[in-house]
């Protein structure tokens, strides 16, 4: 069964580069109620979207990644395709909105990571 793996600053890039297809990374924190809602939503998405690899970064633990990706608000979503950065996703915390944002961003040319 697909699950969400937690990444740290030490395994972030090796894990993303080794993942084929689409990777959705979300930054969250334990005390963030919006993050908790998104976590439940993404757990369900992981079950229903096996082609999508979903990863979590604990923003309180990995400040280096938070700074690198210029995360100012939680939760924050980022899309990678074939290990290459594509975009930050800004959308409603609903499965359909997230999937639409992923579909749109994955069709775009890869960008330089922040």
Q: What does this molecule look like?
A:
The chain is an alpha/beta fold and 114 residues long. It has a single domain, classed as Glutaredoxin (3-Layer(aba) Sandwich), CATH 3.40.30.10. The protein has four helices and five strands. It has helices at 12-18, 33-48, 63-68, 95-106; strands at 5-7, 22-28, 52-58, 76-81, 84-89. A five-stranded mixed β-sheet has the order 1-3-2-4-5, sandwiched between helices. Strand 2 (22-28), helix 2 and strand 3 form a beta-alpha-beta unit. The N and C termini lie far apart (32 Å). The model has no long low-confidence stretch (mean pLDDT 92).
Based on the model shown, name its key terms.
alpha/beta, single chain, Glutaredoxin, 4 helices, 114 residues, five-stranded mixed sheet
Radius of gyration: 13 Å
Largest sheet: 5 strands, mixed
- Cα separation of the termini: 32 Å
Helical residue percent band: 25-40%
Q: Mean of residue pLDDT?
A: 92
CATH fold descriptor: Glutaredoxin
Summarize the entry for a quick read:
The protein has 114 residues and is α/β, with parallel strands linked by helices.
Outline the secondary-structure elements.
Layout: E1 5-7, H1 12-18, E2 22-28, H2 33-48, E3 52-58, H3 63-68, E4 76-81, E5 84-89, H4 95-106
Parallel strand pairs: 1-3, 2-3
Antiparallel strand pairs: 2-4, 4-5
């Amino acid at each position: 069964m697909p699950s969400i793996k937690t990444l740290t600053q030490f395994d972030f890039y090796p894990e993303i580069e080794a993942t084929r297809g689409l990777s959705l990374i979300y930054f969250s924190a334990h005390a963030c109620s919006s993050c908790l809602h998104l976590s439940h939503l993404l757990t369900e998405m992981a079950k229903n979207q096996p082609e999508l690899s979903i990863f979590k970064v604990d923003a309180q633990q990995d400040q280096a990644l938070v700074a690198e990706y210029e995360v100012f608000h939680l939760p924050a979503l980022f899309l990678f395709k074939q290990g290459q950065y594509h975009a930050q996703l800004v959308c409603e915390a609903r499965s359909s909105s997230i999937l639409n944002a992923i579909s749109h961003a994955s069709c775009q040319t890869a960008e330089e990571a922040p």
